[in-house]
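### Sample
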Amino acid sequence: MISPKKQNIFIAVALALLFTLFCAASLNFMSFVQQSLWDNAVKHVMESTARAANALQRNAVKDLELLRMLAQDLEQGMSSDEQRIIGKLQTHLSGTGSLAALIFKDGTGYTDTGLAVTLTPEERKLVQGLNKQGGMLPPYRNRGSGRRTLTIYTPVKFPDGREAHLFKGYNVESLYAAYALSFYNNTGFAYVTLPGGEIIMRSLHPASNKTFTSLFDIINGNGNRPEVIEAFRDSLKNGKTGVAVFNDADGENVFCYVPMPDMEGWYLVSIIPNAVIMKEANAIILRTLLLCGLLFAGLLAVFFIYRRLKRGYQREIRALAFTDTLTGIRNFTKFKIDGDALLQAPDAPHYAVLTLDILNFQVVNEVLGYNIGDALLQRLALLLGELARPGALTARVNGDHFVVLLPYDKKQDLTAYCDALLRALNGYARSQAGSYHIELRTGICCAEDGDAATGINDLLDRANIALKAIKAKGAQPWNFYDSGMRVRILREKELEMRMGRALRDGEFQIHIQPKYRLDSLELAGGEALVRWQSPDHGFLPPAEFIPLFEKNRFIIQLDQYVFTAVCRLLRQWLDAGVAPCPLAVNVSRVQFYTLDFVETYIGIKKRYDIPDGLLELEFTESIFIENVELLRTAVQELRQAGFSCAIDDFGAGYSSLNILKDLPVDVLKLDGVFFRSLKSNGRDKVVIQNIVHMAGELQMATVAEGVETLEQVNFLKDTNCDMVQGYVFARPMPAEKFTERLRNSGDTC
């Protein structure tokens, strides 16, 4: 059993481990939530960036198509007439919120407002190098308006051979407003860059640095890893869409970049501080962390409440588990735990275990009532402790069975305790309404006499052996254990382990003791007796195993085995032409009370086809006294089936003459106890003479068993006893020898 200190250490370690696991799980969960929220926020920014990029591209493509349509219209005219060109510009492009112009290769041209334009040499050189298919120019500062302008263009070739370009310009600031180049509640902003990262358009957002000319001016350094920067550079060059995170002087920023293939492969790059993206996520994480903390605190609270309640319940359960509810003293389980502890103490005194119960306690319950019985048990429990020396343990096992572990100096202390207990308990019983008398039986085993007993259980077993010995002998109310008792118990266990195999292996042998007629001294029959011939232990006397078999009910199998063997022997005689001799077989008390006793014996007789009159069943006198009606019915059925029935051992117990008149038996067997004192006691002769005479009057044959002297034979002959069985004529002999005697001696029955 784990000690409370070790339990507390285990719980502390378990809680620490649980807390660690909980923290790890919480951190993992928060990391997952943080990443999920970040991914969702970045996805939103990416979608906004893509929408703005698509809007920019759609507008540029639409206006470029419009320019091309105008170019086609101009190309279908007859000449490059000034008024016609201005008219077309005004018709198609005026009022669109942008600037429009047509510039010839010589650097002259017209605006949609009718103004003549002459390009500077640098501007003329730029125009001459334009793409022949048309396209888009990076923003520049317009000389006329002074504003940064984004321009699209397409070539025009007039019928008269003159070449020119149509231009349409947009105010960059108006594009910012029109296409929402600020993101995430105006906390983020955007750049339009070339594939090499050069910034060509920048947001008006305050955080949009006006001094940087390239994205890489922003991200170079500031702790950004070179390999990450190079991966970003490669993505821009290869027209990929993606997300990157870089540090700048103000902190960590998220770059969402989307290519615009219809705008010369330019990029729209949104930049949002990572702290802004994580602001909402951090709030959710904080709430999640708080919730996890509250949850863990709640679990701890539940755990400690549960532990507190559990301790209370354990105390109650321990009280229930270790206390007898009726008497309030220890129960048997607690007694054994405490008893072992006392016996193993290094300075333990001499101890003895007493196991005791009240004789016929059930009668007290049934006659006086269960409340009186319970009160008696409570008083006994109280007296067990009050009369014991300090250091004793008392407990109730069950019912009226109690045990005591008692220190003592000499064995007289133990018997004095038993006597004092009995006196005090009877004093209580006499003082109650319906005064009654109590008898206690106590088995005692001293630790010093315990045959190397190693603990309380061994001493209890031996004390119980001593208690059972009292019940068997019915002597004094207490009994000390001795080693012989245990030897007998072990011997009985050994016999029980071997009895089944012995029966199967034929170790039980049939012996027959002849019976002789007194008038002619001729053989009158025999009694079948059983002997156990063990190959390991030799001959075992019946007194060693018959009482045991009656107790464990193995006698039922043995009785049927003997009866079957006798029937088989009679059938062998009949088949061999040997004049059969009536044989008597004992029926044990246990066998008689089996439900199918009569049917079984009649069935075996029929199986071997035994003629009537050859089988006699002997019933002990005690059976006749216990249940006369049941026996009368059984005897009548057996006699009708061809059996003779006998009363065995008459006179060995408390004989009743009533059974002689009430039962229709054929034979009365007088026990040998009658004949042992014939010389010294003339009264015995009178009793025997009258019993024999009365049996004759009741048409019963009489058999005297256990006859050992000629004097006894002569006396029995004078009393007109019919038959004698005893050593004076013959001892029991094996069935084979009895058969030989029938064959060779000419004896007949």
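The chain has a mean pLDDT of 85. This sample (Diguanylate cyclase) is used throughout the tutorial notebook.
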